[in-house]
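re the bet — no i am not wrong, look at it urself. input seq straight from the record:
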Amino acid sequence: MTTLYYAVGACSLAPHIVLEWIGAPYDAVKVQYGSKELVAVNPTGAVPTLREDNGWLLTQCGAILDYLASKHPEAGLSGGDGLRNKAEAHRWSAFFTSDVHAAFWPIFMPSRYTTDTSEAARAAVVAAGQKLVAKQFRILDSHLDGRDYILDGGRSVIDAYSFPMTRWAAKLLPDGLKEYPNVQALHDRIAADPSVQKVLAREAGK
């Protein structure tokens, strides 16, 4: 059985949702970053980590999502099979990995980005991170204008990838998603999905 190692509040929420959308049997194991349990499986101590029955491991959220979409074509989560459809899926996966997720790091861990230990320096780093996130969400909001989902082929793993990050933005941007109505609509569409609600309840321990 496929096993997903996840941490609450992390981007591992995305493959957790995708596994539920696929509907095939899987196991989900809650871990803490850097815990002995996780390091025993993945020496980097990071999530998401996916393990197959034969012990094969896959890390990095974008790679895991692409793998799951390809492994289960019957679920229709790839966003389309054409050359350009696949290129768009890779484009948006890279966008969330390199542009959106990375923009949150100054907010999550401001001490990484300054040697000044003062509260003012920390606040300045966080504010800079918020500006970076806002820039990326403006791009996403514009792209979503007139769309229900990110890719032309309908609901996909890329929408799942967006979900944890839109949740972060709703909590960490000064005005949440107020300035991004199309992103808010996508967030709400995904959040209302029964499978997503099931995963959120599981991760919350309910």
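see?? The helical segments are 13-22, 36-41, 61-71, 83-108, 119-143, 157-172, 181-191, 194-203. told u. also DSSP finds eight helices and four strands in the chain. so pay up
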